[in-house]
Amino acid sequence: PESSDWYNSGYIMTWGSNVPMTRTPDAHFLAEVRYKGTKVVSVSPDFAESTKFADDWISVKQGTDGALAMAMGHVILQEFYVDNQVEYFTKYAKQYTDFPFFVTLKQKGDQFVADRFLNASDIGRETKLGEWKPVLWNENTNDFATPHGTMGSRWDNEKKWNLRLEDEETGEKIDPRLSLLGMEDSVQTVQIPYFSDDGNKILERTSPVK
């Protein structure tokens, strides 16, 4: 994120960026934010320059950063989406993540695999750079919507590159739906790649389809 915004943070993880070494002009922001009580955690296999700014140091084994990130994501999804529905995290997912966006399926043999995001051009919406504007389902209108802040909004010069939950075409408020479960037109079996210590595998899971 923007380094001048670090001072507004209460918790910072330095991960994949050795700030004092590679971003010297920004390093003072990281040192200064600690004076207001912000906790800093360094994720690094070695005691890097950025680690000296940290309250905690997670010394991961080289090459396992991805596994750590996936494990952290798994805990969040399991505890705040699957086992319990926490309002704060649900609102966060709707406004600040790509969870609500539709993903197209591509047939591979007798099965289907995930392909790419469904965009405004795919559903016939006439909008600038529609192929760069993924769509979601608006529960307020029970229809597709194109929110502000997509990549197309960045370059269409319509001044809508922000995170307001509004339809960029109609201006209507958006309440994104996070799952098609319960309103699906059909159910398809989808193949999902799975990587483990036992070797690469393909898992099959049924998914609601619109």
Automatic annotation (TrEMBL):
InterPro entries per record: Mopterin_OxRdtase (IPR006656), Prok_molybdopt-oxidoreductase (IPR050123)
Molecular functions (GO terms): oxidoreductase activity
Gene Ontology CC entries for this record: membrane
Domain Molybdopterin oxidoreductase span(s) in chain numbering: 4-94
SUPFAM superfamilies: Formate dehydrogenase/DMSO reductase, domains 1-3
Top-rank lineage group of the source organism: Bacteria
PANTHER family given in the database record: RESPIRATORY NITRATE REDUCTASE, RESPIRATORY NITRATE REDUCTASE 2 ALPHA CHAIN
Name this polypeptide is given: Nitrate reductase subunit alpha
